[in-house]
Amino acid sequence: MAYDEDLANRxxxxxxxxxxxxxxxxxxGLAFLINxxxxxxxxxxxxxxxxxxxxxxxxxVRRPEATRFEMRGREMDGWLRIDPTGLTTxxxxxxxxxxxxxxxxxxxxx
Length: 110
What we know:
By secondary structure, the chain is an alpha+beta fold. The protein has helices at 5-15, 57-60, 90-106; strands at 21-26, 29-34, 37-42, 48-51, 66-71, 74-82.
């Protein structure tokens, strides 16, 4: 499945103007990186792939639209999948995207 181009454009509108922002195809989707660190991606499997502080993962996955990202059968703290149902409003999308951008900004530049 290709990533949702409409979702990518909505993300782009939110992050435009962020210093050191780049876009890169990865994980089958389109990722938005800050200083070389992935913040958020329009996932090729639908919805968002989001990078967050690993310590926040247990709290965030209590939300119905959020689950841990799974890679090679292993759930990973600090990486979330956000179901499209949690992204229908601009406010909901901004909330998730802002969280990813804030965390990416806290990491050392690559």
